[in-house]
Design goal:
Elements lengths: L17 E5 L6 H18 L3 E4 L18 H15 L3 E4 L3 H8 L4 E4 L7 H9 L3 E5 L9 H9 L6 E5 L2 E2 L5 E2 L4 H5 L5 E4 L5 E2 L8 E2 L4 H10 L4 E7 L13 E2 L3 H19 L1
Parallel strand pairs: 1-2, 1-12, 2-3, 3-4, 4-5, 5-6, 6-9, 9-12, 12-13
Antiparallel strand pairs: 7-8, 10-11
């Protein structure tokens, strides 16, 4: 995959990690623009290639009364406005093959959720749009098995593919990241670490997913130290009242100091590896 082929991606030729970040879900235009403005300012300052993330709908909810979105086209138009306002690419996740063509009209990267990464029709539909495809590693899959998901994209004529690790199920209510998988998956495609979802605590009795956000910095540093190409972090200015995944999101005020530390760490790792 060539980062430079993602439209509007700044600093793609540098040696920094790239970042996929934003709210879990698009809750409205004002919140999306507010979050994007803060992240763009930080990533421009630190010269981090940046893709704004926001789900246009949430299909994999624990309860039927969970927030699923504000309307597909309404949310997708907000993603387009973020891209046009700040000249940054955008990524959103899709859940059905029919979502691929729809979302591709508005965003630059299509993300396949971890639960659905073995769904051939979905992966192929995303690949055939010509957009960059981000494959979330299934919580039930080995790093080695992700080569087959990648091949579904490349066999569809699309070389723009990356893998995002978001942990492996450890019991019923916890996730564990096995960093041995990073060099394995880098043989197949660039590897991203989903820092915040790796700290989820799903399947709570309440039906509301928990999390351990206090460990976000620890997880992100471990990812950079083990050589991931990019980081995925969900962030919000009010995680406690976010409509989706608030329990494991990073508070927006904490993003800049964390990224500044990670840039320093990446520089050190680059020097060690050179």
């Amino acid at each position: 995959m060539e980062l430079a082929r993602i439209p509007n991606l700044k600093f793609a030729e540098g040696s920094n990690f790239f970042l996929l970040s934003g709210p879990c879900a698009i809750e409205g235009e004002d919140m999306a623009l507010r979050i994007a403005e803060r992240i763009v300012a930080v990533t421009d300052k630190l010269k981090i290639p940046y893709v704004f993330k926001g789900s246009f709908k949430k299909a994999n909810r624990s309860r039927v009364d969970s927030f699923t979105g504000i309307g597909d086209e309404k949310a997708l138009k907000i993603l387009r406005k973020v891209s046009e306002t700040f000249s940054v690419p955008t990524v959103t996740d899709i859940h059905e093959a029919s979502d691929a063509e729809l979302a591709a009209e508005y965003v630059d990267v299509l993300q396949i959720p971890a639960f659905l990464v073995r769904q051939t029709d979905l992966v192929v539909a995303a690949a055939q749009t010509g957009k960059t495809v981000n494959l979330k590693k299934g919580q039930f899959m080995s790093p080695e098995s992700m080569q087959h998901a990648v091949r579904k994209v490349t066999d569809s004529g699309n070389e723009q593919v990356m893998i995002t690790d978001r942990g492996t199920m450890f019991g019923y209510q916890d996730m564990i990241v096995d960093f041995r998988g990073v060099p394995t998956m880098k043989q197949y495609a660039p590897v991203v670490l989903d820092v915040t979802h790796s700290l989820q605590q799903p399947n709570q009795a309440s039906g509301v997913t928990g999390g351990r956000p206090a460990l976000i910095a620890t997880m992100a540093r471990a990812g950079i130290a083990t050589g991931v190409d990019g980081l995925f972090m969900e962030t919000h200015f009010d995680p406690a009242n976010a409509k989706s995944d608030g329990a494991n999101m990073l508070h927006l005020d904490l993003l800049e100091p964390l990224l500044a530390d990670l840039v320093k760490l990446r520089k050190t790792i680059n020097e060690i590896d050179s």
